[in-house]
Specification:
This protein is of the alpha+beta class and about 525 residues long. The protein contains 12 helices and 25 strands. The structure holds zinc ion.
């Protein structure tokens, strides 16, 4: 009612409209005197605010002092309305029960908490007079447990740690030492130990059993007060494990699927890598032939040993057949044994010469200089072979040559191989012709993977293509015969022969006339 309808022609006194507002107060509910007085004040306030000087029609006389006063009234009321509005912040409710730190501790002590959180709940009560201390706690009559021989551990220390008395430990060491040197027992070996009752002193050893060797079980037990040793030889079959299969998209995956142990495949690949380029030489459809030494105990354990033979065939034609031979574990191709070959061994397989020996403009340094070797273009990582038997006189980083190997072939000749991604030989080592000494890379001053190959005659670089190294693999005839016999022997191993059961089949052991259906299943 602050703003009057416009159609009223004349406001006259405010009294004409204001009583209507005043009448809205619940006058009847109030005590007569107070009500009348409040009504009187309200009426005066409404009369005052309702006067045209405070609330003029803002559509008229825009800009006049009265209009500005009316505007101020309106803005003031708006600010008042906004300031009286409630804000939307959360109102904190008081807890239903006030908790001081004592009460909180009390609640906590009654919680059940997982041990992982500390398990410190619960109340600790002092013992009352009703609690009677136990006079003695009964001891277990025997203790059975397993002890393990650690790395760098000793048999005697292990026994002492397990609680075996000094006398028993000495007796056991003497008994076991008569069969196997106790320092020959492999770390990680587990010992089943049983300690008996004690007569005042430490518990006496009743039983000790362990696998002393792959093919030997030992058992020490007490009989009639004395420790006695029983040894059981375990039948071990040493048929090598032969795995043949077809190379699919991945030789590794195919060999794994055929049952080859991971270490055997890794060794197979690294052996092949030293004799051929793995990227191009192995194709899908080839047949791989892996033979590893293998030991099987009749108790079920197996041990995979070293790779013995690495073969690769394509349609019945041998691509590679490498046999481990000699005490340094090198692999030899049958064709490489006993034959005398002469010719130029190339330091990389299939590498084409991209830059010849002589003066040329250096691609990196930009000026013309002597090219002291021959560059072979080859793929990154391709193996680099020694061109002849030699001694390694340098292997490592060599400035602009990057990773570099220099070989002394004797007779004043030396060869050097630069820009390798990595070297595969150490200084001072002896290498055979055709042995891998490193891998093609682009280290040092190089524009891309290639082999920079140098030949030195009495310390001066000469054209490497001018000298032919004579490769001779002269082998003692007896050794060659032994090699061939070993190869033939390994090749008689049937793939999967080592997988057959050592023990007779269960079905043939049981009585055939038993007649129970379940026994017919094998
Ligand atoms: Zn070069």
């Amino acid at each position: 009612m602050l703003f009057k309808p416009r159609e009223l022609p004349q406001f006259g006194t405010a009294g004409a409209a204001a009583p209507a507002a005043a009448a809205a107060l619940p006058e009847a509910a109030l005590p007569q005197g107070l009500g009348r007085r409040l009504a009187g004040h309200g009426k005066a306030l409404f009369d005052h605010l309702g006067s045209p000087s405070w609330a003029p029609d803002l559509a008229e006389d825009i800009g006049s002092a009265e209009w500005f006063r009316g505007l101020a009234t309106m803005l003031g009321l708006m600010v008042l309305a906004v300031s009286l509005g409630p804000d939307s912040s959360a109102i904190a409710a008081s807890p239903t029960m006030p908790l001081d730190s004592n009460a909180r501790e009390e609640f906590r002590s009654q919680m059940i908490q997982p041990l992982a959180l500390g398990g410190d709940t619960g109340r600790r009560m002092g013992a009352t007079m009703a609690a009677i201390p136990a006079a003695g706690v009964p001891e277990r009559t025997s203790l059975k447990f397993t002890a393990t021989l650690g790395q760098g551990d000793s048999f005697e220390r292990m026994l002492a740690r397990a609680g075996v008395s000094i006398e028993d430990a000495a007796a056991v060491s003497r008994l076991v030492g008569g069969v196997i040197a106790t320092d020959q027992i492999a770390p990680g070996t587990q010992f089943d130990i049983a300690l008996g009752s004690r007569d005042g002193g430490p518990r006496q050893l009743d039983h000790l059993a362990f696998r002393a060797r792959f093919d030997l079980d030992l058992k020490v037990s007490r009989a009639g007060g004395q420790l006695q040793l029983e040894s059981h030889a375990i039948t071990v079959d040493t048929t090598p494990l032969r795995i043949r299969g077809t190379v699919g998209t991945s030789l590794y995956m195919s060999a794994r699927a055929a049952g080859a142990p991971i270490e055997a495949i890794q060794e197979y690949l690294s052996v092949l890598d030293q004799h051929m380029s793995l990227d191009s030489a192995i194709e899908p459809g080839d047949t791989f032939d892996i033979i590893v030494s293998y030991r099987r105990a009749s108790s079920g354990e197996t041990q995979v040993g070293e790779l013995l033979l690495a073969g690769l065939e394509q349609g019945g034609r041998l691509k590679a057949q490498l046999l481990r031979w000699g005490k340094d574990g090198q692999f030899f191709e049958a064709s490489g044994m006993g034959q005398r070959r002469t010719g130029l061994i190339m330091p990389v397989v299939g590498g084409r010469i991209t830059s010849n020996f002589g003066a040329r403009r250096h691609p990196v340094l930009g000026y013309t200089r002597m090219h002291s070797g021959v560059d072979f273009g080859a793929g990154y990582g391709a193996p680099i072979y020694a061109v002849g038997d030699a001694r390694v006189i340098f292997s490592g980083w060599h400035g602009g040559h990057g990773n570099y190997v220099k070989l002394d072939h004797g007779g004043g000749y030396a060869t050097a191989y630069a820009h390798m991604s990595r070297t595969a030989v150490g200084v001072g080592g002896a290498v055979r012709a055709g042995q891998v000494i490193g891998y093609v890379g682009s280290t040092g001053l190089s524009t891309g993977p290639h082999l920079h190959y140098e030949l030195y005659r009495n310390g001066t670089a000469v054209n490497p293509m001018s000298v032919k190294f004579t490769v001779s693999n002269q082998v003692d005839p007896g050794e060659l015969a032994a090699y061939k016999a070993r190869m033939a022997q390994l090749k008689t191993v049937k793939p999967g022969a080592a997988m057959q059961s050592l023990a007779p089949r269960q079905a043939s052991v049981g009585q055939a006339s038993n007649g129970r259906e379940i026994d017919k299943l094998s």
